[in-house]
Specification:
- This is SRPBCC family protein.
- It holds the Pfam family Polyketide_cyc2.
- InterPro entries: Polyketide_cyclase/dehydratase, START-like_dom_sf.
- Helix content is 26%, strand content 46%.
- The protein is of the alpha+beta class.
- A seven-stranded antiparallel beta sheet has the order 1-7-6-5-4-3-2.
- The protein is globular, with a radius of gyration of 13 Å.
- It has one domain: Alpha-D-Glucose-1,6-Bisphosphate, Chain A, domain 4 (2-Layer Sandwich).
- A hairpin with a 2-residue loop joins β6 and β7.
- The chain has three helices and seven strands.
- The model has no long low-confidence stretch (mean pLDDT 96).
Amino acid sequence: MTLRAEGPASPEDVWLRYVTPACWPSWSPQIRAVRVDDRRIVPGTRGEIVSLFGVRAAFAVESVDEERRLWTWRVLLGPVRLRLLHEVLRRPGGSATTLRIEGPAVALAAYAGPARWALGRLVRG
């Protein structure tokens, strides 16, 4: 599944919000907290996301391409495994972000609504 959002935030600001785990709860309302040692994600960063309802999911960052503003990570929530690929693009008057999610269809269907909402908040500025 691929989702996309466009908004007035600069690509630099959107990218910074992506690569700084402490910022994730500010634009992704389904995330209450992020537990991670790294201030900025790098390949190999591992941590835990705590959802709005206290559900915890482990994650590991696979790749980060600062120049192309592209990053990939895996999230594990019980038996459910997701792979998420994020990209930030420059657009006239702001930016766009795309999110490709690979995983079980049921999990994708459940995550699509919150993810769309979060992406809109991310690029809104």
